[in-house]
Write a structure and sequence with these properties.
- The protein is globular.
- It contains twelve helices and ten strands.
- The longest helix has 37 residues, at 269-305.
- By secondary structure, it is α/β, with parallel strands linked by helices.
- 45% of the residues lie in helices and 15% in strands.
- Helix 1 (40-48) crosses helix 10.
- It has an eight-stranded parallel β-barrel with strand order 3-4-5-6-7-8-9-10, surrounded by eight helices. A two-stranded antiparallel ribbon has the order 1-2.
- The structure holds flavin mononucleotide (FMN).
- Flavin mononucleotide is lined by residues 32-37, 57-58, 87, 114, 116-117, 156, 186, 217-220, 240-243.
- It catalyses: a 5,6-dihydrouridine in tRNA + NAD(+) = a uridine in tRNA + NADH + H(+); a 5,6-dihydrouridine in tRNA + NADP(+) = a uridine in tRNA + NADPH + H(+).
- FMN binds at residues 33-35, 87, 156, 217-219, 241-242.
- Its EC number is 1.3.1.-.
- Its cofactor is FMN.
Length: 345
């Protein structure tokens, strides 16, 4: 009986790299797709800070909606380093196949299919994790997408529709048979939303049953947990979502620990400031002044959330409406904390 990754000891050896089609993925730590979070600036930063693979926000398969500003930024991969993995969401096989082709035309090197997201907007159209209830439709979508593109297709699922219908294993085998190249599994059912703790037994079962790389996802918040989950499930990699918000250095921390068994020290305040300033500049550049300033607010909030006495700063920062003022405010706040820390030392 393997120890539960939620508690207890472990570390043993670990697969250090794996491939998705022609792409060798060095570090077994992947940034999960998160709508409204894993935009290009954030993906680039996570990649620079150690993520072996990063996955885009989901793009709707309804190409008639692609002319919106939101879709245009999600579809823009000019100059992005690879492999570029783009997630598509929808419930119609032909539309999904078409969306896959169009994304490949625009630079996608891996197509990821969303059957893991419980967001209402997607589920109302029977897409995302709602698809897990209809295995025939799952097969039709996988078949249509895999046969429509020459790049590898990956799939993201939950462990099933609800605790009584945990069909993740069936879907995983089907995906492998239909030519899917890798599979990410979030250790909750669709009905579980984000409640309770992610479970890794179903993921371990899936890993034993298929030969394609499986990525374990759900509630992985640091290096030790990543190690335990990998050892428990035998997965090829861990996939990190919420724990990366405001902490893009989590990828190098996990990758380093997995490779050496040693914990990296937390980044210094100077480094956090520098990373945040770079992130801000990229947001302003990518989205333009108005949108960039707006989108920066939530990211800055995540960065400073874990630092003491950040509430007043966040309130003030959220009132600022120009890029220069945001930069100055971040610099000044960190400068004060760094000076205070130096004096106390
Ligand atoms: C804000 C947010 C947006 C998300 N958007 C997507 C998405 O677009 N596609 C998807 O497959 N999963 C999406 N997810 C689910 C995550 O990819 C991941 O499976 C989930 O958060 C569990 O991992 P974690 O515990 O590491 O956060 C989203 C999650 C969050 C928190």
């Amino acid at each position: 009986m393997r120890p539960d990754p939620r508690e207890g000891e472990l570390p043993t050896e670990l697969p250090s790299s794996f491939a998705i089609g022609p792409y060798n993925i060095g570090a077994p730590v992947i940034l999960a797709p998160m709508a409204g979070v894993t935009d290009r600036p954030f993906r680039s930063l996570c990649r620079e800070l150690g993520a072996g693979l990063v996955v885009s926000e989901m793009v709707t398969s309804d190409t008639s909606l692609w002319d919106s500003r939101k879709s245009r930024t999600r579809l823009d991969h000019a100059g992005e380093s690879g492999p570029i993995s783009v997630q598509i969401a929808g419930g119609d096989p032909e539309m999904m196949a078409n969306a896959a082709r169009e994304n490949v035309r625009r630079g996608a090197q891996i197509i990821d299919i969303n059957m893991g997201c419980p967001a209402k907007k997607v589920c109302k159209k029977a897409a995302g994790s709602a698809l897990l209830r209809d295995e025939k439709l799952v097969a039709d979508i996988l078949e249509a997408v895999v046969s429509s593109v020459s790049v590898p297709v990956t799939l993201k699922i939950r462990t099933g529709w609800c605790p009584d219908s945990r069909n993740g294993l069936t879907v995983a085998k089907m995906a492998e048979d239909l030519g899917v190249s890798a599979l990410a599994v979030h250790g909750r059912t669709r009905a579980c939303g984000y409640h309770g703790q992610a479970e890794f037994d179903t993921i371990a079962e899936i890993v034993s049953a298929v030969k394609i790389p499986v990525f374990a996802n759900g509630d992985i918040t640091g290096a030790e947990k990543a190690r335990k989950v990998l050892d428990y499930t035998g997965a090829a990699a861990v996939m990190i979502g919420r724990a990366a918000q405001g902490r893009p250095w989590i990828f190098r921390e996990i990758a380093h620990y997995l490779a050496t068994g040693e914990q990296l020290p937390e980044p210094s305040l100077d480094e956090v400031r520098d990373i945040l300033i770079t992130h801000l500049s990229e947001l302003h550049r990518f989205y333009g002044a108005v949108m960039g300033v707006r989108i920066a607010r939530k990211h800055v909030g995540w960065y400073v959330k874990t630092l003491a006495d950040s509430d007043d700063f966040r309130k003030t920062f959220n009132q600022l409406d120009c890029a220069e003022a945001q930069h100055a405010s971040v610099r000044e706040w960190f400068e004060r904390r760094i000076t205070r820390g130096a004096k106390a030392a």
